[in-house]
Amino acid sequence: MARNYGVYSIQLDGRWSLEDLYRFPRTYEQAYFALEALVPSDSDIDYERVERAFSAFPWQGGYSAVNFYNQLKYATPLAGRPSIVAIQYASPGFINLALILEQAQTLAAIVAAVAGSITACNALYNKIINDLQRRKLLRIEVEKAEVALSREQLKLIREYNMELAALLNIGTPDALDERTKRPLVSLKILLSVYRRIRTLAEYHNKHKAILPTHVPPYARLPPPQGDLF
Question: How many domains are there within the chain?
Answer without folding.
Answer: 1
